[in-house]
């Protein structure tokens, strides 16, 4: 039987949950879960022996999807029923909640991977450097903890300088990497396996021109400036960005191009609901963040390869067992800190048109890199 969710706590396994919500994503450092069971238990007085702070592993069909701790427990009852609600997060949640502390709080010539391992050692969190994260092993001349910042905020600054991302792998490890090029086995097709689709196309965080300013270091410091324009934003909306580190990061022009591309890509999202937590009609692997998937949803005006940014596994009496997939234009993640980190494959979004048209034997017109979902 597929889609079996179990919580392993204190040497015991608890299943039979009637309401399940599990969230995992590339843009959240810690996955989280919320589970509830509501049953008619005549004469049942003892609640499930789960308490906050316990180590917990949440599995789907035996595969860990959240490895961390129980955050909250909420038992309750009335004359007819007993219920128990429990929630928790990955071990990496402590990095979000806790302050960064390490000896002098300063590193000289250390890599991001070394800085991460130093900061994470007291938390018992392992660091995994991915195959596309070579920059994580490159020396950073000087890096300091800023007073009062969390471990995550500290590492996020280092990741931004090195053009990298961080997430967790469901096994409690901090992953330093970039989204890969692995493809889902199943495409998302309107009228077939898409149960529901919600698009979001926004201009709130988009601007007509991005102007990056900073200081370049050398024998003498001098001001640097770069700019990039978003052709889709047709009214005056300039944004000045102060570069974090021009000495060791990308150029001001690259940083401006990144700001434009990433903001455009992250402003255009869609959430697609499918039946089951697994691909290929229960027979395939779990839907997971970081997979690239072909999307054919004409009513959202999306015909493209998309990146699965986050996954929410849901089960409740109203919806049954479903999975919500938040998708985005992969180009929003192919450019990080002004550095082009990957080229899309031959069947990627740079080849796929985002709307049907002439001039392509597959019925899709080719689009330029300046096109975006929200302008169609």
Please supply descriptive tags for the structure shown above:
3-stranded mixed beta sheet, Baseplate-like_2-layer_sand, Gp44/GpP-like_2nd, 13-stranded mixed beta sheet, 376 residues, mainly beta, Phage baseplate assembly protein, single chain, GpP-like_N, 5 helices
Beta fraction of the residues?
35-45%
Kindly report how far apart the N and C termini lie: 42 Å
- Poorly predicted tracts of residues: 337-370
What is the number of strand segments? 23
What is the alpha-carbon Rg in Å? 23 Å
- Largest sheet: number of strands, sense, barrel closure: 13 strands, mixed
Indicate the percent of residues in helices. Answer: 10-25%
Structural class of the helix and strand makeup? Answer: mainly beta
Number of helices: 5
The shape, in one word, is globular
Q: What is the H-and-E element order?
A: EEEEEEEHEHEEHEEEEEEEHEEEEHEE
Protein model, in words:
Residues 6-90 form the Baseplate hub protein gp44-like N-terminal domain. This is Phage baseplate assembly protein. Residues 345-376 are annotated as: Disordered. Pfam families: Gp44-like_2nd, GpP-like_1st, GpP_4th. This protein is mainly β and 376 residues long. It is built from 5 helices and 23 strands. It has helices at residues 93-97, 112-120, 151-161, 252-267, 331-334, and strands at residues 5-9, 12-14, 19-25, 32-39, 55-60, 63-77, 82-90, 106-111, 127-129, 139-144, 165-168, 174-177, 188-189, 196-201, 209-216, 222-229, 238-242, 268-275, 292-297, 302-316, 320-328, 335-336, 339-340. The strands form 5 sheets. Strands 1, 2, 3, 4, 5, 6, 7, 13, 14, 18, 19, 20 and 21 form a 13-stranded mixed sheet that branches. A hairpin with a 2-residue loop joins β1 (5-9) and β2. α2 runs antiparallel to α3 (151-161). It starts with a strand and ends in a 36-residue tail after the last strand.
């Amino acid at each position: 039987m597929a889609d079996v969710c179990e919580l392993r706590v204190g040497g015991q396994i608890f299943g039979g949950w009637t309401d399940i919500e599990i969230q995992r994503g590339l843009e959240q450092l810690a996955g989280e879960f919320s589970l509830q069971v509501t049953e008619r238990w005549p004469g049942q007085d003892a609640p499930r022996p789960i308490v906050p702070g316990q180590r917990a592993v949440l599995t789907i069909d035996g595969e860990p999807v959240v490895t961390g701790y129980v955050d909250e427990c909420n038992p309750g009852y009335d004359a007819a029923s007993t219920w128990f609600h429990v929630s928790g997060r990955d071990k990496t949640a402590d990095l979000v909640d806790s302050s960064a502390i390490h000896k002098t709080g300063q590193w000289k010539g250390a890599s991001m991977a070394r800085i991460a391992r130093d900061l994470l050692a007291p938390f018992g969190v392992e660091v995994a450097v991915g195959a596309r994260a070579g920059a994580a092993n490159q020396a950073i001349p000087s890096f300091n903890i800023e007073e009062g910042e969390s471990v995550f905020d500290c590492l996020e600054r280092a990741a931004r300088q090195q053009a990298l991302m961080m997430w967790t792998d469901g096994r409690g490890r901090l992953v330093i990497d970039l989204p890969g090029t692995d493809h889902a086995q199943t495409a998302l097709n309107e009228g077939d396996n898409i149960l529901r689709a919600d698009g979001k196309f926004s201009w709130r965080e988009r601007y007509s021109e991005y102007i990056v300013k900073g200081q370049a270091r050398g024998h003498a410091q001098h001001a640097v400036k770069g700019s990039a324009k978003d052709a889709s934003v047709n009214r005056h909306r300039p944004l000045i960005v102060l570069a974090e580190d021009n000495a060791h990061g990308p150029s001001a022009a690259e940083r401006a191009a990144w700001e434009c591309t990433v903001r455009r890509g992250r402003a255009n999202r869609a959430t697609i609901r499918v039946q089951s937590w697994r691909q290929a009609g229960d027979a395939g692997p779990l839907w997971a963040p970081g997979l690239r998937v072909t999307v054919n949803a004409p009513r959202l005006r999306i015909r493209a390869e998309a990146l699965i940014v986050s996954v929410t596994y849901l089960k409740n009496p109203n919806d049954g067992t479903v999975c919500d997939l938040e998708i985005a234009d992969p180009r929003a993640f192919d450019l990080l800190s002004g550095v082009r980190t990957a080229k899309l494959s031959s069947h990627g979004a740079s080849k796929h048109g985002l709307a049907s048209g002439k001039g392509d034997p597959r019925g899709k017109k080719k689009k330029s890199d300046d096109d975006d979902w929200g302008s169609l």
